[in-house]
Amino acid sequence: MIKMEHVIILTHTQIEYDSRIRRQLRTLSKKYNIILCCKKGNGENLNYLPRNIQYFFYDEIVCQLGKRFLEVFIDRDPVKMNYLTGLNGCLKINLNVFTAYEAYRVDLTTVYKQMYDYIQKDKIKVHCIIANDVFVLPMAIRIKNFLLPTNPNVKLIGDMHEIHFDYIGKETDLNQKVRTWLCDTFLPKCDLITSVSEWGVKLYATRYPKNPIACIRNVAEYSDINPKKNGEYIRLVHVGNAQKARRIEEMIKLMELLDKRFVLDMYLVSSNTAADLYINDLSTLIQQKGLQNRIRILSPVVSEHLIQTVNDYDIGIFYIEPIIGNHKYILPNKLFEFIQGRVAVVTTPVFSMKEIIETYEVGKVSQDYSLDSFANAIMQVEENLSFYKDKSHQAAKILNTEKEWNGIMNYLEN
Known about the structure:
Elements: E1 6-11, H1 19-28, E2 33-39, E3 53-58, H2 67-73, H3 83-92, H4 96-104, H5 110-121, E4 126-132, H6 137-147, E5 155-160, H7 173-186, E6 192-195, H8 198-207, E7 213-215, E8 234-241, H9 249-254, E9 262-269, H10 273-288, E10 295-298, H11 303-310, E11 315-318, H12 333-340, E12 344-347, H13 351-360, E13 363-365, H14 371-383, H15 385-395, H16 401-404, H17 406-413
Parallel strand pairs: 1-2, 1-4, 2-3, 4-5, 5-6, 6-7, 8-9, 8-11, 9-10, 11-12, 12-13
């Protein structure tokens, strides 16, 4: 029996409902054993994942500096929490925080030490490290340096889910500088940078011209299903994170512009208290507008079951206005989940989504970001619904994980 090599996957998220990470795990586990380091969640839905995954969980630290900031800058060792005092001082000096971080990051967290011990004990051969997003890049580079003496060919892939150096929005000026600094300091040390869209690839290639850069879109695994027949009602569906920046309330207001044949189900993921409060606000808004018979907020569905769930609907909708730079290039999971679920698609005219929808003719893009325009696009799709569902059925055979990952799997093998 040939002993499989290992791939280390690092992420700052909980993986219970992180579709991109779960697809990454399912795809890579077919050829490699996986060592996964991620934020500790509630443990739900792990039984759907492959069995050849070794988990290393870390606890989230919550304080006024912001959870993601601390995930990068603060060791979880309680003995060293007095470093917070010094860090608070550095924050007031702004960019000097980076000098403090560079000096402090040499301290490994307990979870990484456990992972090192696991690798050393079993003399594990690591083929590749995948750092999901910029926040885990510093530790990924330390792990690579640790492994090089025994794994001289180990590669590091920086899988960037966002355009971090163009993330300016409601975040503080310091957080934007942290993202940019992390990119500029650590991405050039990666053997390969990947982004979720061709627009993202162009932006990263412009900023880091010496690095190989590839596109891995958020496509879903291929599902051998057919479009459902149209019914009496036009069933709209939206899936995604409950984030205020996404302005989900606009899709609630949208329903006032559509006749009573249109109903909407929203499967919203909550991973923190702010998201829970936002979902409560959305529920209140639905009640205030008297739309409780036409709009439902439902619990999220694990990615392994999501395509079958989406298949019961007619049109997948995603209203987003690019109020922050990163949103201009968004190419989300849900777009490909709608296509794989064999439903028509309607979105706002964001560059990357518009390109996919118009190339494969799977739906319509609104003329602008007004709700009137968005409602008009939905009504146009409804007039020829079977055509667009059939186009999604055709596109699903092309836009799927099996085809999308061919290039990266060849890169890893060669």
